[in-house]
Design a protein that fits this description.
The chain has nine helices and seven strands. The protein is α+β, with helices and mostly antiparallel strands. The relative contact order is 0.07. The strands form two sheets. A five-stranded mixed β-sheet has the order 2-4-5-7-6. Helix 2 packs antiparallel against helix 3 and helix 6 (185-202) packs across helix 7. The longest helix has 46 residues, at 118-163. The two termini are 30 Å apart. The chain has helices at residues 16-38, 44-73, 78-104, 118-163, 170-183, 185-202, 212-230, 255-263, 303-320; strands at 209-211, 234-239, 248-250, 273-282, 285-293, 325-331, 334-342.
Amino acid sequence: MSIPQRDSFLPDLCGLRALFLVVSVAQLLAFMLSVTRTGFGPLAWSELALLSLYVQWIAMSAAAVLCLARRYLVRLPALWESVLAYLLVLLVAALVAELAWWVLAPREGEAALLTIAHAEFRLRTLLVSAIAAAVVLRYFYVQHHWQERTAAAAAARLQALQARIRPHFLFNCLNTIASLIRIDPLRAELAVEDLSDLLRATLSDARQLVRVEEEFELVRRYLAIEALRLGERLQVVWDIDALPQHLAIPQLSLQPLVENAITHGIELLPGGGVIRIYGRVAGKILELGVSNPVPPRGRLSGRGNHLAQDNLRQRLAVHFGPAGELRIEQTPGRYCASVRLPATEAPDAHRDR
């Protein structure tokens, strides 16, 4: 039976980013100790070099021990993890101090590099290491919980944004289904199934990314419902043959654009029109867009449209930051809305290859 593991406040000290932080703090500490001991006199550089070697020796050894012990520490309660990590650093400092004394201790007939007693050398090392370890471990702890709070706030914001998605077609769809129940019960049943899938998507975990093909399937279900109401007025062209279907996007990234294309374009044209749905990858950027006709001198208007677009912009920003954006282009008689985001594979894409 495997033991469930929680997130550890200790970063992966085998990684370059955390290791760089440890090395930087250690070097800053060596500089401070050197300045307090010798100031900026003629012996300052040699003193700094010796202290840097010693401090980095302790810091790198402690980082290596914590890196190896992290898999075991994470199984413990947070308090015990903190205490044991702290004690491990002090143990490493004590061992390095003993080894350094053995190497550098004054010997008869040789120039002395150390001019203090053994006990004092060991005590100074432990005191300085205790203070530095407390500061660094506290920083890791605060940073970890700040990241957790940030992630939780982003997740809550995503859920709130997704909960605000209220498809404009809902009441029309229910009316369409009601009218079909008596004359075509089978089509009414299929429409109910499509509607349930769409509504289920609005209640899913907003933090999860889905495959492009899953979003396309959701859009097809939505279009199937609208086709019951609009009939031949609604024509759709899919230009996605060259698009990899395993790329990851936030769910309900394309459906709101298609909904706006119908509500503010196709419905306002007596003869309907053609909606073009396209997708392409340029470099490392995935672009998905919807192009639709609009009435002469018409524009997408209405509060619902702006809310849907603002909602989508905010969800893209939460997921991708500045790399996720919604672009709007309008020409006489035509309106195009597209989302651009980093082209990354969905988490489960490798399983189907």
